[in-house]
Every structure is written in C-alpha cells, then in structure tokens.
Specification:
- With 253 residues, this protein is α+β, with helices and mostly antiparallel strands.
- The chain has a domain of 177 residues.
- The chain contains five helices and twelve strands.
- The strands form two sheets. Strands 1, 2, 3, 4, 6, 7, 9, 10, 11 and 12 form a ten-stranded mixed sheet that branches. Strands 5-8 form a two-stranded antiparallel ribbon.
- Helix 2 packs across helix 5.
C-alpha cells in the first residue's frame, strides 16, 4: 500500500459558503458514515454506513462554513501503483487484472454523497477543488471508482447507459472485466436514444474531464444501486479544465 496521506492544516480549503476538510479523525469518520447512511439508505436513525475500507481511507468532509453542517463527503484510498489495486473497494466487483500494470500512483474515490436537499453546485466544486489539491500534492496519475445510478433496474437508466456505451467505454488496455455475479452488459441496451443528462452529475464530471467507464454495470443490491467502474487518467484531462480545477484548488475566496 502507498504511504498514507495524513490530514494537516493544509487540507482545509475554504471557498465562499463552504469548506472542505480532509481527515482521519474518528469523530469526522463517524460524521461521514452517518451522512452516508442517510444518503444511501434514506435512514435518519442514528446508524452508520461503514465497512473495512474506512480505516484505510482519507475522508473529505464538505461543510457549510458558517454553521459547520456537513453537506457532502467522500473517501480516498491512495495506492502506490496498479499492483495494489486488488486492495481497492472496486476490486470486489470488477476484474481489474489489466489495471495492475498501471505504473503510477492511483487514488480511489468512493462513497461520495450529498446531504438531502444540498443541491448548490458550489458544493460539488468545493469537493473537486479538494480532490484536485490532493491529486496534485500526491502526484496521482489515475483516479478511479464506482459511479452509481440510483436503483437496481437497468431499464430505468437505458438512455444514460446508452451514452456510456456509445462514447465513453474505456480502452481495452485498461478495461475492467466482469467480476461480479449480477451485471448488465452494455450489449443488452438495444436501440435507445442516448441522453447525457440521464447520467448522474458526478459521473458527468468525470466524463467531461476525459474519464471512461467499464463496458458493463454491476447491480449492487446491498446499496440499491447500479454502478460502473470509472477511470480518469490525469494526463488526459483537457488543459483548460485542468487550469480551472487548479484555480479552484489553490485559490480560496
């Protein structure tokens, strides 16, 4: 496993109404787990969404600067190279043998969620600003993760999946194979009119930066989602988009 990233004062990013903090502190991890429970399961019962990966990860919390209210969170698992990708969350669902040959540093972004009613686009911008800061500092060459559609019925997402099939399936050299028992292959989509707006916002952000996806979706009944493996090679991010992200990451306002 690559050297863990420690939370320091440098990992606090203030942007207008919001701030992002990177943390491994137990109280912050529990706060993120509670928000995940509410976002993924619709349960405001005081329970937590937690798994064995949480202790390995750096957790990013996006809060309202004035009130401290948690409005978004995600976690990051840093890997020294593709040789370590079998330790990732995504490796439970996808055959990542090809990506084991990836030579550079990687980070898995996972469990991204927003608080109910938190729709301000500045929240997502602040989240990506912190991600960009950490990617730059740690010299990350690939981001990856599982990007989710709500619900487990592929028929509800055919226009969005058709866009992925037609424009965004990843290169054969790195493309994940099937590793889960319950999958929906893109060859089953059929004649459907593609619609980019049917793709979830976080995945659209990845795609706009040059990201790509697996050629199938995994039906995750435990979380009640349909997800696709998503990869983003940092060197492939368009120059204008990279400049804009770094402006967000390194200039507060």
């Amino acid at each position: 496993m690559g050297e863990p990233v420690e939370a320091t004062e440098a990992e606090v990013l203030e942007r207008g109404r919001y701030r992002a903090r990177a943390s491994r502190a137990a109280d912050d991890v529990r706060a993120a787990q509670a928000l995940r429970r509410q976002a993924f399961y619709g349960a405001a019962d005081g329970g937590l969404d937690r798994d064995r990966f949480d202790r390995k990860c750096l957790h990013v919390l996006v809060e309202e600067a004035a009130s401290g209210r948690l409005v978004a969170c995600y976690r990051l698992l840093f890997l020294g190279s593709g040789a370590e990708i079998g330790q990732s969350y995504a490796a439970q669902f996808y055959d990542l043998a090809r990506l084991m040959a990836w030579p550079g540093r990687m980070v898995e972004m996972g469990r991204f969620c927003l608080a109910p009613g938190a729709h301000d686009p500045e929240i997502l911008r602040t989240a990506w600003a912190m991600m960009t800061r950490l990617v730059d500092r740690e010299r990350i060459q690939m981001l990856f993760g599982c990007s989710s559609f709500a619900g487990t019925d592929p028929r509800a997402h055919l226009p969005g999946l058709a866009v992925l099939r037609d424009r965004f399936v990843g290169p054969v050299k790195w493309r994940p194979g099937v590793g889960a028992p319950d999958v929906f292959g893109f060859e089953r989509i059929g004649a459907v009119t593609p619609r980019l707006r049917a793709v979830p916002p976080l995945l659209r952000t990845y795609l706009a930066m040059g990201g790509w996806v697996s050629d199938h979706a995994v039906i995750d009944r435990a979380l009640g989602t349909l997800h696709v493996f998503t990869g983003l090679e940092v060197a492939a991010v368009p120059e204008a988009r990279a400049r804009a992200l770094r402006a967000l990451a390194h200039k507060t306002r």
